Structures are given as structure tokens and as C-alpha cells.
Amino acid sequence: MGPTLLSRRFVSFLSASPPCRASIPRLAAALACLCVLLVPTQPLAQQPAEAKVPVADFFRTPLLARPGLSPNGRYLAGAVAADGGRVQLAVLDLENLGSSKVVAGFGDGDINNLWWVNDERIVFDAIDRESGTSRPLAPGLWGVNRDGSEFRQLINASPRLASGRASHVVDRRLPWEWHLHSVLADGSMDVLVQGLTFNNAWEVVDTKLARLDTMTGVTRNLSEGAPDHVTRWVVDRRSRPVAVTTWHEGRFRAYVRSAADTGWEKWQDADGFRGNFWAPYWIRFDGQLLGLARRGGDTSALYAIDAKTHEPEAEPMIRLEGYDFRGAMVYDTQAQRLLGVHYETDAVGTVWLDPVMQATQAAVDALLPATVNRIDCQRCASVPTVLVTAASDRQPPSFHVYNRDTKALTLIAASRPWIKAQAMGVRDVHRFAARDGLSIPVLVTHPPGKASGARPALVLVHGGPWVRGAHWSWEPQAQFLASRGYVVIEPEFRGSEGYGFKHYRAGWKQWGMAMQDDVADAVQWAVKQGWVDPKRVCIAGASYGGYATLMGLVRHHELYQCGVNWVGVSDINLMYSINWSDTSEEAKGYSMPVLIGDRVADAQQLKDTSPVEQAAKVRRPLLMAYGADDRRVPIAHGKEFRDAVSRTNSDVEWVVYNNEGHGWRMLETNVDFWTRVEKFLDRNIGAGAK
């Protein structure tokens, strides 16, 4: 059974009610390619085998990213990669492709996220993909009409991106600490923006909300009288804040507007880690608040909240069996009604509450049977044209438009046309029982082609660690490794989020212990399936995954022949004491003692589970890579461990990327690093192994 069917099985719906105005010739040529680049849609078995895919192809910038349809369905805006490497904003007229054009871009930055304000206006932010630094880059905000006119910077960005001219005599640009909150979709030229408030240590301690006119830059404050330490704003269709959440000194609190609209009433007050509280999530057009909670169960579900009592209804609107609810509401901005919900279980999916959209999904799925097909639209009930994003574990996203009146499906572009699905590995979601019986999800990527026997494998440990690490989608790291002949094992060890509170809670204070055992158990489980040669296994990961790599070589040296650690933690106590990382004092004082360990009460445990204290036990070959500009896991972690392990282990490869931070952003870095990984694995567990 494939992930698409599995994901639907897990869903239970119990009720539903200096900017440059780009006119660069090479960009025009790149834009023209969008209309002719096609992705094969015939069954995979009918496609010829491909040669070895170059390393760079896995990490290149997508040709088209984050496309969005205008509310009327006529225009498509997207981030387009140009020949020179920079990403520009292009707008396609779907009724007259000859008039399509690039409408905005930078010589020293890249268009990142974009949103339609209405049928005429677009807002977008920017990053610099050619700078590897992980220091927070203020993304700024700009507005432009779909024809390229009325270009205006609304929020300042990084110094380089913000150094251009002001677009009006009166400079109303907001400072860099502001960013987009949401688009109103009310027919106006306005959006909502959220500002950050910092303390003297440059830690975010509060946020504020304002309404911003994207044509004039004029703002209107919406946060007057709000509680302190707001982390999330929930607004109604009139852009009025109706619920907020706060986080301070380990406490979670939620507030709602009073019935008389005279102020804020405290709704929830709970321990931010151990409390079972309600989190406001979304406001329907009829004004009813929806909230997330684990009421009576292990996983969080979506409930409707009574407007008068602020109590949830007895049964949830949406519950996902075995998964916390994570999703996006699909609502018609004109008809003002909820049409469906995008969600993720083992794979992404959509459940439509509207019969017209149900029929539309069925028609699209019939035309694209080999992919999971997400439909997006704004005026879905009245506009027949929808955007379709088709993707799978083997195929990167391709973007289509479908007209339900004409039944025509038109391919706009493949995000990565150089990637051929038949050359990619198959990814499947499984579950296995850890040594203490806890059910652990794991995603396994098999190399393309039929296996003649057990294969070498790499267990890839995700960072965080309190995140969901694996997703059933095309993923560059796993697919690169699979293309080189390795089975890739990605366990969702205890502590990973998204699988219920029990799974999350089981990981508290388990760094280097039960969390580490889950990773080892995943390998042993894969060996028992007959997929993996137990004598040819390595462990790898970044950040927490780098920590788990080092501890894996310490605790389970008989299981792993080698390890690859990049930007990994090596000294737990250094995480608490270092004062020039971006870990906040709030985290050090309240979350880390709960999730990792208390520096006093758990002092011995933190010492025993710090790789730098156990470095002499690491005897296997090790590849270590760090970013010189990393503030999340400063390079001191890497240097400490390198110096310690080198006293007893001569097979340690060390590399520093001077222009990178916490992970690799630049193509040249990715090519260099993953080429090193390929050679390292080959000589230790691959064809070149002795």
C-alpha cells in the first residue's frame, strides 16, 4: 500500500462546519523555459535507466519554486532561477504566455517567499543564497504590481539588500525586525506584519502586530493592549486580533478577546512542557475559533471552541490516527467557507469537504496517478483554474494548472527537470518496536534498481532533535546517498515531534541513552528485513544528528564502521555555558533542563553523555565538518572533539567552511562536502572498502 493511500486511512473527520527592476535578457530566456520544460508522466517502468547523477544536481537551486495563482486564477507568480544563479520574481499570464515577464529581482539577493495580495499586487521577501552564513537574515518585504509597476520596499532587510534607493519621497520603510504575518485577501492592498521586540541580549521577548498598506507604506497598530511576551497572533477575517499565545519563563498562556471587545481574557495558563493546554489555531469566517489540544488522547487534534464558554466541543473536527495534526485550512476567500484541509500523516494529503473540490481532486489524481497532487486556490468555488503541485518520493515537485470546466491539465514547469524519477530511490515509511517496546517510525530509502542481496547502509539521524525529521518526499541528501548504492535509514527516534505526546515525552533527558538506542535498533531492524549488510553500516547526521553520530561511535562501535558528523554538538555543558551562541537564556533556563538535563541534578549524566568526554572510545573512521560562522553550534564544539579524538584516533578527516553557518547553503559547499562523503563512505563500506 503506497503512502498516498496510507495517509488517507489515517484521517478521521468527525465533524466539519537596492532592488533592480529586472529586465535582464537571460532571465527572459529562463522564464521562456518554464513553458516548455516537461516532466515525464508515463509509468516509471517504461522509462530508460539513467547514468549516475552528478552531485551538484541534487543541490542546485530549483528552476521554479513557491508558485502561486492570483485569486482570479489568471496569473501565476513564482521564484525563477536565472542563468546567473540569482532567483527572480516572474509572473505568467496563463491566457497570454507571450506577455509573461520577470517583474522584480536583485543583483545581490534572491527572491524567497511570495504572496498575492489581490489580483494586481504581490509582496515578497528575499535572502542571499550565495552567502552561507546562518546569522539571521532580515528578509525584508517588498511590494510590486503584477506588471512590474508600483515597486516599493516596505520593510528593510539586510544591509546589502536594503541599501538601494527609497521608492518614494517619504520613506516609510519599517525596520528590519518586522516581517509578514499574513495576507488578508479582503480585496484591499493591505497585509498584516509582525514585529519582534528584543532584550539587551538580542533575544526575542515579545511581538507586535500591524496592518500595512503595500502601496503607501502606511501602518496601523493592532497590538495595543495586548499581553506581554506574545508569540502567536490569531486574527479574524477583518484583521482583528482575537486570540494570542505567550511564552515566558516556561509558562504557556493563551488569551482571547473579551465578549464586549474591551480587552483580553486569560484562557489558558499551563506548564509549557508538561501542561495539557489548548492552543488557538484558526478563525473561521463565522468567527468560531479552532484550537489544538490532546484532549483525552495522545495526539493533538483540531477542535471547534465555543464562542461564549471558550470550551471545546466534545468531538474533534480533525484527528489524525497516530499523528499530531499539522495542516493548512483551505478556505474560499470570496464564498467565505471552509472547503478542505491539507495535512500530513505518513505522507501529505488533502481531505475536501466540498463536493466540487472532491471531484476536482479525483480528476487530477486520475490524470497524475504516480504522484501525490496538492490543489491550491483562493476563489475555489467560482474560479475553475487551480494550481496543482505533483510530487512523490522519487519526483521533485512539478507545477500544473487544471481547469475543471475544460478538464485540461497544463504543465507549467518542473522544479528540477534535471532529476529523472526513474534514477531515484524508493522511500517508504515503516514502524518497528524499540527494545523497550516503543513504536518508532522510520523512513527507508532504497537505492534504485533491484537488489541482489543485502546492501551497505547509512543511518541518517535528523537534527533538532524535537522536530519531525523525515517526510515522504523527494529529499536531496537521502536520494544522493541512495544513488550511490546505500540504503538510507531515517529513524524518528523518541523525542521527535508529530507522533503524539508519549513519543515526544519519552525522549526527555535521553540524549545519548534511549534516543541513541532507537537509532541502533532501527539499524538492527533493517538488517532483519534482509535489506542491510550488518558489516557495512555507517552513521551520519548534522546538529543533534552530528551529536548522535559521535555517541553512536562511542556506544555502538560494533554496529558502525564509520561516522559523518557535520555541525554536531560534542559538549553538552558547553551548550549551557557558551554566551556567544544563538541559544536563548530562556531555553537554557527553562527548556533545556527539562528536555536535556539539569546542570546540577543531572551533572553526571550530562558528562557521561557528552562525546568530548568519551572521545577515546571513538576508534572508527570519522569525517567532521563545521561552519566557521555557526552560532547555533559554534565551531568550538568541533575543535574540542577533534583535538580530543585525534589523541587516540588517526583516521579523522576535518574540514571547515569559512563562509557557512549551521548547515550548508552554497552549492559549492554542498558539492565539496557530499563529494567528500561519497569518497569516505566508499572506502569504508562501499566498493572501495577493504
Please sum up the structure shown:
The protein has 690 residues and is an alpha+beta fold.
Describe this structure in words.
The protein is of the alpha+beta class and 690 residues long. It folds into two domains: 3-17 and 19-224 and 333-414, no CATH class; 425-684, 3-Layer(aba) Sandwich (Rossmann fold), CATH 3.40.50.1820. The chain has 13 helices and 36 strands. Strand 18 and strand 19 form a beta hairpin. The longest helix is centred in the last third of the chain and has 18 residues, at 667-684.
Estimated share of beta-strand residues: 25-35%
Question: What is the overall shape?
Answer: globular
Helix content: 10-25%
Number of helices: 13
Q: What number of domains?
A: 2
Mean pLDDT: 88
* DSSP, total strands: 36
Q: Give the C-alpha Rg.
A: 25 Å
Descriptors for this entry?
single chain; alpha+beta; Rossmann fold; four-stranded antiparallel sheet; 13 helices; 18% helix; globular; disordered N terminus
What topology emerges from the helices and strands here?
Blueprint: H1 3-9, E1 11-13, H2 25-33, H3 55-59, E2 64-69, E3 75-81, E4 87-93, E5 101-104, E6 110-116, E7 121-127, E8 141-145, E9 152-155, E10 178-183, E11 190-198, E12 204-213, E13 219-221, E14 230-235, E15 241-248, E16 251-257, E17 264-271, E18 279-283, E19 289-293, E20 301-305, E21 318-320, E22 327-332, E23 337-344, E24 348-352, H4 355-367, E25 372-376, E26 385-391, E27 398-403, E28 408-414, E29 426-433, E30 439-446, E31 455-461, H5 476-483, E32 487-491, H6 501-505, H7 514-528, E33 532-542, H8 544-555, E34 562-566, H9 572-577, H10 585-595, H11 603-608, E35 622-627, H12 636-645, E36 652-657, H13 667-684
Parallel strand pairs: 31-32, 31-33, 33-34, 34-35, 35-36
Antiparallel strand pairs: 1-21, 2-3, 3-4, 4-5, 6-7, 7-8, 8-9, 10-11, 11-12, 12-13, 14-15, 15-16, 16-17, 18-19, 19-20, 22-23, 23-24, 25-26, 26-27, 27-28, 29-30, 30-32
